[in-house]
Amino acid sequence: MEMIRCTRCMAELGAGDQVCPHCGYRQDRSDQPGNALKKETILRGRYLVGNVIGQGGFGITYVGYDLTLEMKIAIKEYFPSGNAMRTGSQSGVIQWTFVNNDEKQWSDGMDRFLTEARRMAKLDSVPSIVRVRDAFRENQTAYIVMDFVEGETLKSSLLSRGIMDYNQCMSLLAPVLDSLAVIHDNGFIHRDISPDNIMIRPDGSARLLDMGAAVDIRANDGHASMAVVKRNFSAPEQYMDEALGSWTNGYDLLLPYGQSGSGGHGAGI
Fold it and tell me: What is the DSSP track for 9-30?
C-alpha cells in the first residue's frame, strides 16, 4: 500500500487528502523554487524530499523523510549559486557551468562538503548542535542528511515577542556556547550562526541548525574553500581571505543580539 506524506510536515495523509489535516498545508507541487529538487523525489533510495525550507549562497535545505527509519529529517544539497542550475526537466541532476578553474574549485568544494559532514557525524553526542546522519553523492552534487528539529526559530520568536533581556539570552544561549566549544575542540566552526539558524524547541531549549556550512579549520591553515557569509551576522574574516577560528563563531553568535539594527530585533545583550 502506497504511503502518501505531506510535503511540508511529512505527516501521513489519507487517500485523496489535498489539505494536510495535521498542518493545514494544501499539497502543491508547483510552489517549489525552480532550481530545487521536485517534491517527492527520493534520494539514495530512502530519503523522500519535501518543501524547501532554506536557501543560501551554496546550498538548498529541504524537509525530508527517512523511509527506512521512518522519521522526519532535514536534507542539505550542495548548490553553490553562480555555477549550478536545474531546469524543469524530469531529472534532478544539476547542470554545472564552469570557467577557468571553476571545475576544480567545485570538485574540491564538494569533497570538503562531504568530508566535513562525515567528520561532524562522529560528533553525535553534542547536545545543542543538530546531528548529521548521512552524507552522499547523487545528481552530480552532494547531500547531507541531518536531524529535523521541531520548534520556532529565534528570529521568529524575537519578531513576534520582542527583545530578550540579558538573563533570558544567557539562559538560552549558554548551552549552545558549551556545545560550540566541543566542536571547536574538534577543529570545526559553524560559519552560519544567526537567529534563523537557532531553533527554540517546545521544551524551551535551543538547538543550532544547519551544519552544512561547518568547516574544518585545521585544514588549509584555517582558510575555507568557499566563502559563506550572511549580511549583518558574519564576522569580517568571512568576507576576506583571512584565517577563521573559534572567534568567528563568537562574533556570529553574540553580535546580532547586541545590535537592534542587525536584521530586525536585538536581544538586549
Answer: T--EE-TT-SB-TTT--B--GG
Q: How many CB atoms lie within 10 A of CB 132?
A: 23
- Rg over alpha carbons for the chain, rounded to the nearest Å, is 19
What the block records as the C-alpha cell of 70 is 521512518
**Would the pLDDT of 234 be above 60?**
no
8-state DSSP, 94: P
Beta strand ranges found along the chain (DSSP E): 4-5, 12-13, 42-43, 47-55, 59-66, 71-78, 84-85, 95-96, 132-138, 141-147, 152-153, 188-189, 198-200, 206-208, 215-216
Instruction: Report the 10 Å Cβ neighbour count for 56.
Output: 19
pLDDT value, residue 107: 83
Region 131-144: mean pLDDT is 93
Identity (one letter) of the amino acid at 27?
Q
Residue range 146-173: average pLDDT?
92
Helix (H) or strand (E) holding 103: helix 102-121
CA distance 255 to 235: 9
Q: Using CB atoms within 10 A of its CB, is residue 267 exposed (0-12), middle (13-18) or buried (19+)?
A: buried
CB atoms near residue 124 (< 10 Å): 11
Sign of the CA dihedral with 250 first, then 202, 60, and 76 last: positive
- Check residue 260 and give its pLDDT: 36
Report the alpha-carbon angle 153-4-88, nearest 5: 75
pTM of the entire structure? Answer: 0.78
Q: What is the mean pLDDT of residues 224-244?
A: 53
155 CB-near residues (< 8 Å, 6+ apart): 194, 195, 196, 198, 263, 264
CA distances from 222 to 95, 114, 215, 216 (A): 31, 18, 9, 8
